[in-house]
Design goal:
Layout (H helix, E strand, L loop, with lengths): L4 E4 L2 E5 L6 H7 L4 H10 L2 H4 L3 H16 L6 H6 L1 H7 L3 H17 L13 H17 L4 H19 L7 H16 L4 H15 L11 H20 L15 H15 L1 H12 L5
Antiparallel strand pairs: 1-2
Helix pairs in contact: 2-9, 4-7, 4-8, 7-8, 7-12, 8-9, 8-10, 9-10, 10-11, 10-12, 11-12, 11-13
């Protein structure tokens, strides 16, 4: 989306590179979770109604996948026999099947559009479909769905400002957990609990490229999103004496993004080395 350095031979044609200190970077980031929450809940409805397009597009992608055999067909399988015999015909199983199905179709190259988030279709799917399915299965109003989707997507955008090497479903599922918590009747405090629970659980999931098995990771992410929302509604939250969690939710998000943007650089290189040196029989 932008160029920062262009050179040919010894001649530099463009150089916008600059070193920004951590303090300067933090000063530039004006968003925090409270602002995201307030915006989602107080914005005039007509100004954010466009978010329903992401519900329409991404749900259509899932429904297309149910009709065919795309990728590993995870969503189609979850919607079939296993939905009734193993998980039960529930909101939870519907969330898993729709989310994984849309990813199945997208990663298999199905000729259907999906709405992205932060440049990623899979993140758009993960931030959208768990919220949409929960809202529809629980007969929530259009306004509640709109505000939950805005909360989910903006949370993802906020966290993604500083993140790269982690699997995007970690962040996107955190957004959907916020949206689900809101639809469950959760207040701001409970939404922060959902975020803290997510960060405590699936931080560190690697990204090893775009491929059909991304559907497995999305399903892991959104199942954790539901668990985190349920815990949050019971006022259960991982505390600051545990691992990378801080008392302040925005500092916990900083810890997550620091692991992704700094701590996983070597992991990224190792993953790439493994992928490019595999021997095919």
């Amino acid at each position: 989306t932008t160029f920062v350095y262009i050179a040919t031979d010894e001649k530099v044609l463009l150089d916008k590179q600059q070193t920004v200190s951590e303090e300067e970077e933090e000063a530039q980031l004006e968003l925090n979770l409270r602002k995201v929450y307030d915006f989602a809940l107080t914005s005039p409805l007509d100004e954010i109604r466009f978010i329903l397009d992401t519900a329409r597009l991404n749900k259509a992608a899932a429904e297309q996948a149910f009709k065919g055999n795309y990728g590993h067909s995870l969503g189609k399988m979850l919607r079939g026999t296993y939905e009734h015999k193993v998980m039960g015909d529930s909101v939870f199983s519907h969330i898993l099947s729709y989310t994984s199905a849309a990813c199945d179709a997208r990663m298999a190259g199905a000729m259907i559009p999906v709405m992205s988030n932060s440049g990623s279709g899979n993140q758009g799917i993960t931030a959208t479909l768990p919220v949409v399915v929960y809202a529809e299965d629980n007969h929530k109003s259009e306004e509640e769905l709109i505000r939950a989707l805005v909360l989910s997507h903006l949370t993802v955008i906020y966290i993604k400002q500083r993140l790269s090497a982690l699997c995007g479903c970690v962040v996107a599922a955190t957004g959907s957990s916020c949206g689900i918590t809101y639809l469950m009747g959760g207040n701001y405090e409970q939404i922060t609990f959902a975020v803290q629970n997510m960060i405590a659980n699936i931080t560190g999931m690697i990204c090893d490229g775009a491929k059909p098995s991304c559907a497995l990771k999305l399903t892991s992410g959104v199942s954790t999103a539901v668990f985190s929302a349920i815990l949050a509604m019971e006022h259960k939250c991982v505390s600051s004496v545990e691992g990378i969690i801080d008392d302040n939710v925005d500092r916990s998000i900083r810890n997550l993004t620091k692991i992704g943007s700094q701590g996983m650089n070597e992991t990224d290189k190792l993953v790439l080395e493994i992928m490019t040196h595999k021997q095919c029989d």
